[in-house]
Amino acid sequence: MVATQAVFLISDATGETAEHMVSAALKQFRDRPVIVRRFSNVRNKNQVYEALDQALASGGLIVYTMVNADLARLVYTECDALGLPCIDLLSPLLMRLSEYLGHSPEEMPGLLRGMNEEYFRRIEAVEFTVKHDDGQECRNLHKADIVLAGVSRTSKTPVSIYLAHRGWKVANVPIVHGINPPQELLDVDPAQVCGLIIEPQRLMELRAARLLNLRQNTRTDYADYEQIEEEIRSAKRLFRRQRWAIVDVSTRAVEETANEILKKLKLL
């Protein structure tokens, strides 16, 4: 029977990055029983000594991520003196980056954790936005950071996804001429809603192109200029009545529209 071995993770932040890396590597050694112990927020000499004392009792492998150069050197020299095997996951990378960028690292514990939190926040925002595209799940509109409203082909979806990748939870709702908008949309705080408008000629061109791509007849109300004019007038009346911010997307790229929305909603 193979004896259980131990890996001790020491970090001056949460240590989650090191744990993910070690866990990934250990998957290549499935037949070896290994326990992983993590020491987080180790930021002074006494905490280093305490962690190494516990590792010494078990004869474990030390894996450390210390952005503080002095503490990283301390872990290395103590491990060498105690005969403990150790791996520095972070210092070689920081040194290479420092050489390449010509700039010293900030040595601020927790920056990696902050990056992880930002990453997962964006993933959550994208998932929310996809689920609330084109009027889906209107009952959750109050959970959105931003709600976009507009007639068909006013770039609601691409703008929503762009904003989501910047960390905003976005829902978008189509405004259909002759049909009352969902009550959930009307109940949302007006400060969170932006109505998208577009020049009728530009919208007619976009809709006609879409119908052609779908191999459908372009001589329909959907691409009729007069019908489009009325749709846009009706949408503008709704937006003003609800006191929503309004952004014209006629000549704007997705990025420009997104930035204008953030400005109008005072989120920039």
Summarize the SSE layout with pairings.
Blueprint: E1 5-11, H1 16-26, E2 34-39, H2 45-58, E3 61-65, H3 69-82, E4 86-88, H4 91-101, H5 111-131, E5 146-150, H6 156-165, E6 170-174, H7 183-187, E7 193-197, H8 200-213, H9 225-242, E8 245-248, H10 254-264
Parallel strand pairs: 1-2, 1-3, 3-4, 5-6, 5-7, 7-8
Helix pairs in contact: 2-3, 5-6, 6-10, 8-9
Quick structural gist:
This protein is 48% helix and 15% strand. The chain has helices at residues 16-26, 45-58, 69-82, 91-101, 111-131, 156-165, 183-187, 200-213, 225-242, 254-264; strands spanning 5-11, 34-39, 61-65, 86-88, 146-150, 170-174, 193-197, 245-248.
What features would you describe in this structure?
This protein has helices at 16-26, 45-58, 69-82, 91-101, 111-131, 156-165, 183-187, 200-213, 225-242, 254-264, and strands at 5-11, 34-39, 61-65, 86-88, 146-150, 170-174, 193-197, 245-248. Helix 5 (111-131) packs antiparallel against helix 6 (156-165) and helix 6 (156-165) crosses helix 10. The model has no long low-confidence stretch (mean pLDDT 88). The chain contains ten helices and eight strands. Helix 6 links the parallel strand 5 and strand 6 (170-174). The protein has 268 residues and is α/β, with parallel strands linked by helices. Helices cover 48% and strands 15% of the residues. It folds into two domains: 5-109, 3-Layer(aba) Sandwich (Rossmann fold); 120-264, Rossmann fold, CATH 3.40.50. The strands form two sheets. The chain has a four-stranded parallel β-sheet with strand order 2-1-3-4, sandwiched between helices. A four-stranded parallel β-sheet has the order 6-5-7-8, with helices on both faces.
